[in-house]
Design brief:
Layout lengths: L1 E8 L2 E6 L4 E6 L19 E6 L5 E6 L5 E5 L7 E6 L3 E6 L8 H13 L4 E5 L7 H17 L2 E4 L11 H5 L3 E5 L6 H8 L24 E5 L5 E4 L21 H7 L16 H7 L5 H15 L8
Parallel strand pairs: 3-5, 8-9, 8-11, 9-10, 11-13
Antiparallel strand pairs: 1-2, 1-4, 1-12, 2-3, 4-5, 6-7, 12-13
Helix pairs in contact: 1-7
Bound molecules: guanosine-5'-triphosphate (GTP), magnesium ion (MG) and zinc ion.
Zinc ion (ZN) binds next to α6.
Pfam families: RsgA_GTPase, RsgA_N
Family: Belongs to the TRAFAC class YlqF/YawG GTPase family. RsgA subfamily.
Cofactor: Zn(2+)
Length: about 300
């Protein structure tokens, strides 16, 4: 039987079969994936083949080739990685101008790594209801900046439901990864989109203006209008450790655009004469915050800190 892995808790995988059954499955003992050294060879979003047994559970016997997958390096085992999700159509990055404040560096690093994985990103500005006039103005400016670069932005309040309907056509029939710092309202948004999901949400801690991690396993949640949302614990971005320094330019869309006019083809846009990127920053065609994020990623590479970027 064929199915889609929609949940992973420890060694158990919940597989939704093509005829709509949910079957708890395990990986066969000797099951290995070619070329990937991972702590979990199967991930949510994988299309698998299963063999059922008398107890009503099943073994996963084969896995279909992935269109893409998102990995995170295991914190302990340096050579191994953890697959967070496979076959992702897009990522929804939930950000907040305040409560807690999401930094532009965080957003830009996430966007750059998503570019590296060819995963389109939609920026979801949440907690609209909490913002002051000034913060709303800042939110608008951020939206304009990122729309100009080429990312779709929506402004919502997951708590009140304001603006959430803009997400329906975006999410329809797609597998969407939900990301964002802890406390920005990912679980609240899921509850809003899927009334019966009953995601646990956390009270934000006033003292630090940050939330607590309350989501502890990978799960795909089926949307009433078709499609799935993946709410994965603690994703701060994609695994970026295999981005080459020379490639970094191409992961910042507007920097890449201007870099074609740099005098040197291997220009790093830091000090070179005739650099069209630096000129574009000076002329305000490229936002200073974006350029700073680019420089900070480049610096991490220099110091070989890149592996810990997220
Ligand atoms: N006022 C307001 N509060 C919100 C909104 N969205 C979420 N919250 C609150 O913010 C807090 C954190 O929300 P969660 O949904 O738990 O955040 P999360 O992103 O799932 O956090 P983690 O699971 O830790 O990653 C909760 O107290 C929510 O009620 C919003 O749009 N407006
Ligand atoms: Mg949560
Ligand atoms: Zn340059």
């Amino acid at each position: 039987m064929k199915g889609l892995v929609i949940k992973n808790t420890g060694s158990w995988y919940t597989v939704k079969t093509d005829d709509g059954q949910l079957i708890e499955s395990k990986i066969k003992g000797n099951f290995r994936l070619k070329g990937i050294r991972s702590t979990n060879p199967v991930a949510v979003g994988d299309h698998v083949e299963i063999i059922t047994n008398q107890e009503g559970t099943a073994f996963i016997s084969a896995i279909e080739d992935r269109r893409n997958y998102i990995i995170r390096k295991s914190p302990n085992l340096s050579k191994q990685s953890h697959i967070l999700a496979a076959n992702v159509d897009q990522a929804l990055l939930v950000v907040t101008v305040n409560y807690p404040q999401t930094s532009t560096t965080f957003i830009d690093r996430f966007l750059a790594s998503a570019e590296a994985y060819s995963v389109p990103v939609v920026l979801v500005f949440n907690k609209h209801d909490l913002l002051s006039e000034e913060e709303l103005h800042y939110e608008k400016m951020m939206c304009t900046l990122y729309e100009t670069v080429g990312y779709k932005c929506v402004e919502i309040s997951a708590e009140t439901g304001e603006g959430v309907e803009q997400l329906f056509p975006i999410l329809k029939d797609k597998i969407s990864l939900l990301s964002g710092n802890s406390g920005v309202g990912k679980s609240t948004l899921i509850n809003r989109l899927i009334p019966h999901a009953s995601q646990r949400t956390a009270e934000i801690s006033d003292a630090h203006n940050t939330g607590m991690h309350t989501t502890t396993f990978s799960e795909m949640i089926e949307l009433p209008g078709g499609g799935y949302l993946i709410d994965t614990p603690g994703i701060k971005g994609f695994g970026t450790f295999d981005i080459e320094k020379e490639e970094l330019t191409s992961y910042f869309k507007e920097i890449f655009h201007f870099s074609k006019d740099c005098r040197f083809s291997n220009c790093t846009h830091t000090h070179e004469p005739g650099c069209a990127v630096i000129k574009a920053v000076e002329d305000h065609f490229i936002a200073a915050s974006r350029y700073q994020s680019y420089l900070s990623m480049l610096e991490d590479k220099d110091e070989n800190k890149y592996r810990e970027a997220f």
